[in-house]
Write a structure and sequence with these properties.
Blueprint: E1 3-7, E2 11-12, H1 22-25, E3 35-39, E4 42-47, H2 49-53, E5 61-64, E6 69-72, E7 74-76, H3 88-95, H4 100-105, H5 110-119, H6 122-138, E8 141-147, H7 154-170, E9 174-182, H8 193-211, E10 216-221, H9 228-240, E11 244-249, H10 257-263, E12 268-271, H11 277-284, E13 289-292, H12 294-300, H13 308-314, E14 318-320, H14 334-345, H15 349-355, H16 358-363, E15 381-384, H17 389-394, E16 403-406, E17 409-413
Parallel strand pairs: 1-5, 2-6, 7-8, 8-9, 9-10, 10-11, 11-12, 12-13, 13-14
Antiparallel strand pairs: 1-3, 3-4, 6-15, 15-16, 16-17
Bound molecules: N-(iminomethyl)-L-glutamic acid and fe (iii) ion.
N-(iminomethyl)-L-glutamic acid (NIG) is lined by residues 80, 109-110, 113, 220, 248, 251, 296, 323, 325-328.
């Protein structure tokens, strides 16, 4: 694998120094120098071009960044990238006044995507997910967590996870797979809830763990989905099977899932639109990352943004994800969400950028490998067509990266007009 040198950067935002909370989140982690040298998929050094010149070999590829902003490749810590079908018609219904939960409770929403996903071939699921992965890479995302959860049978969940594994292997996107067997109660189990919880805990979870296809297990703990008690049963079974934990909680109603997840040492609790003060305190006193998904609040039009400032000031570790999924947030580009997210969550540019790089990487157990520009870490880099971090947020509209490097290879370059 060749060497790659990016030089003449306007600013290099490194996100160096590990996951950040409180005031450290807002520090502008900007490198002295204008260049990043990479070799064999790893970052060799960040600094002034003159100092790095001696480290580079003769056949090193060099890219003049023309005064642009260089950042770590973005890390999207919450996506549902694999699914069949489209719910564009339900979006129209929502614009016409129907609510997300009404559509879900009437057998649409997640259930619609489950039907499409169960019917889809593995090849079709891979083809559509690959298109979304391509959007991510063009927009500077180089790592994404990908959940199952539209299969809801052992076989269909494994099918989704095999597609996630193929995405990791056959595209430049780095994929962290999560098993979400408890995403929704299938309608045929409406009068037999315990039976489905038992199926997920006792059959699906061990099968998924044995397949090696998932690192994390997740549960949707909310109104219309799974209760705190059911969530506890499911998370404990997952932990016992050797899976690490994350959770969807407090999107519509706070059922106590946040406190439970913290108690069980989950890596992350995501959504938190209606998190309680007790939930904020529990997160602040833990290493469980508060995953904020403002794109979902915007796309649902609910107006309930997670209390980002309160979480930061209390001392919680926060990350921000796209939540790309077929219903509540159909945006694969984390970059697109950055500005409205910063505006509504009232997070400053450096806070947001740490939340979508090093803190997101930490929530995925990858903080030693991705999420910052430091020697020895993966050569995953995004270059944006702006001069500095403030402009990245201020220049609201252009969403594509100018250049994306994944594993030391240029995987996207903005074509000249
Ligand atoms: O994170 N909240 C639950 N799951 C997804 C939405 C899934 C869907 O609507 O298909 C989410 O928002
Ligand atoms: Fe989700």
């Amino acid at each position: 694998m060749a060497e790659l040198l990016l030089y003449n950067a306007g600013q290099i935002f490194t996100a160096a120094g590990g996951p950040r909370r409180r005031a450290a989140l807002a520090e502008k982690t900007v490198a002295d120098g204008d260049a990043v040298l990479m070799r064999e998929g790893l970052i060799i050094a960040v600094g002034a071009r003159a100092d790095l010149a001696g480290l580079a070999g003769d056949d090193c590829d060099a890219v003049d960044c023309g005064g642009r902003l260089v950042t770590p490749g973005l890390v999207d810590c919450h996506t549902h990238l694999v699914y069949g079908g489209s719910r564009a018609d339900e979006y129209e219904q929502r614009l016409g006044g129907a609510s997300y939960l009404e559509i879900f409770e009437a057998g649409g929403g997640i259930h619609t995507s489950v039907r499409h996903t169960q019917q889809a071939t593995e090849e079709d699921l891979f083809a559509s997910a690959r298109r979304r992965a391509k959007v991510m890479l063009r927009h500077g995302t180089t790592t994404a967590e990908v959940k199952s959860g539209y299969g809801l049978t052992t076989e269909a969940e494994l099918k989704m996870l095999r597609v996630a594994a193929r995405l990791d292997k056959e595209t430049p996107l780095r994929v962290v797979p999560t098993f979400l067997g408890a995403h929704a109660l299938p309608p045929e189990y409406a009068s037999r809830r315990e039976e489905f919880v038992r199926l997920v805990a006792e059959e699906m979870t061990p099968a998924v763990a044995a397949s090696g296809l998932a690192r994390y297990a997740d549960v949707f703990c909310d109104r219309g989905a799974f209760s705190r008690e059911e969530t506890e049963t499911l998370l404990r079974a997952s932990r016992e099977a050797g899976l690490e934990l994350r959770l969807h909680a407090d999107e519509f109603e706070a059922l106590g899932g946040t406190e439970l997840a913290v108690e069980l040492g989950a890596a992350a609790v995501d959504h938190l639109a209606v998190v309680t003060d007790a939930g904020v305190r529990a997160l602040a006193a833990s290493n469980t990352v508060a995953g904020l998904l403002p794109g979902t609040t915007i796309f649902l039009g609910s107006g309930h943004f997670a209390p980002a400032r309160k979480l930061v000031e209390a001392g919680a570790l926060i990350a921000v994800g796209s939540d790309h999924n077929p219903g509540s947030c159909h945006a694969a580009s984390l970059r697109t969400i950055l500005t409205p997210a910063a505006t509504y969550l009232r997070l400053r540019p450096a806070e947001m950028l740490h939340a979508v790089t090093i803190n997101a990487a930490y929530s995925l157990g990858l903080a030693d490998h991705v999420g910052s520009l430091e020697a020895g870490k993966a050569a995953d880099v995004a270059v944006f067509d702006v001069g500095d971090v403030n402009e990245l947020f201020y220049d609201w509209g252009p969403a594509r990266a100018w250049l994306t490097v994944a594993g030391g290879e240029v995987v996207f370059r903005d074509p000249p007009v």
